[in-house]
Specification:
This protein has eight helices and five strands, in the order H-E-H-E-H-H-H-H-H-H-E-E-E. By secondary structure, it is of the alpha/beta class. The chain has a five-stranded mixed beta sheet with strand order 2-1-3-5-4, with helices on both faces. Strand 1, helix 2 and strand 2 form a beta-alpha-beta unit. It is globular and about 45 Å long. About 25% of the residues are buried.
Amino acid sequence: PVMDWLNENVEKEKVVLGNDETSHLTVIYTPLNVFYHRAAIYSLSVTEERLFDVLFTFYRLQGVNIENTQEIFFKERSYLSSNIYGMHYRELNGSYDSIPDEKIDKMVSLYEETLLIPTNKWLEQILEKYEVEYIVWDKIIDSKWQLEQYSFLKEVATFGDIAIYQFSSNL
């Protein structure tokens, strides 16, 4: 039903933000673009800034804060390695986990810098920057997102535990 709703209600080429599975299904079953796709790291046109913006958006939505950034980033080093550097460290050293601690420390520092901007303002700026018009939220898988708290998002459809929000910038 979600993909049907997107096909019937969203103009072609608009940008949708969703989790990994939602984004994957969106590119298969709709003519829409996505904010994030698991294969983006293999695109020659993607910039490091874009990769960090995407990564940090999901960490912001999950509530990662200054107190737990370092612990989470080191715990998820394979995820960070593959999402920012693709297969580089796996090919170089046989494992995504082989990313040097210094690279993780740099990511921690970059993320903590973004925390100087309140999440609601930062998120609004990112959605505006990347022209995101809709967010598909799986309230079970991504329970920490809590999208109803943002004044620039309006719930426009619900399908069980999945809600679709429309973005309208206040900037």
